[in-house]
Amino acid sequence: MPSSVDRDRGGRPALTSAHDAAEVAQTLFLARGFENVSVDDIAAAAGVSRRTFFRYFGTKADVLWVESPAELARFRALLAAAPADERYDAVLCRVAPEALHHSPAERTWALRRAQLILTVPAVQGKAAARHQEWRRIATEFVATRRGTGPDDLVAIGAGHAVLAATLAAHEYWVTHPAEELRDIMARLLRMLIPRPG
């Protein structure tokens, strides 16, 4: 994980990365409560200006989604790389947990993100677009594997199953943090994804 503030070649402090600022924000949210932390609080604690904060994020709730573009891109790439003869349910059970897997150094960050997403209404409102994209990627993958269109009931069911398993896995992980999110997700996916008929 990158360090919070490094020095550039000119001797001035380098800007904190978006991920660093998000990590600072998570710590403040958990310590004080989401509603009691302002953008100015986050910027000051992260050592950046308010302007820099808004260059990274539209709102303070967006800090929790700093890794979403990379996770979605990883999901697409892993699905695209799956062997053509591997059944779609096996691919999803293997790939979806891997797409959300983070290094041991980022485990605490990922767990804190899950806690906040599951408990803060303002954050949950922001979650809808990410959840829809996660589900859409899975649905389109299954439809393509089955040679059908996006209105294929099995593909739709699989997409919703992937999203349900993802949300349920995070909920379970928050109360069982000693377990691995990847393993929890894999078990839930095997329970929920419709098998080829």
What would your notes on this structure say?
This protein has 197 residues and is mainly alpha-helical. The protein contains nine helices and no strands. The model is unreliable at 1-14 (pLDDT under 50).
How many helix segments? 9
Mean pLDDT: 88
Radius of gyration: 19 Å
Strand residue content: under 5%
Order of helices and strands: HHHHHHHHH
Largest sheet: none
Structural class: mainly alpha
Give the uncertain stretches in residue-range form: 1-14
Layout of helices and strands, plus pairs?
Layout: H1 18-32, H2 39-46, H3 50-56, H4 68-80, H5 88-99, H6 107-119, H7 121-146, H8 153-175, H9 181-192
Summarize the model shown:
The protein is mainly alpha-helical and 197 residues long. Helices cover 65% and strands 0% of the residues. The protein contains 9 helices and no strands.
What key phrases describe this protein's structure?
mainly alpha, 65% helix, 0% strand, elongated, disordered N terminus
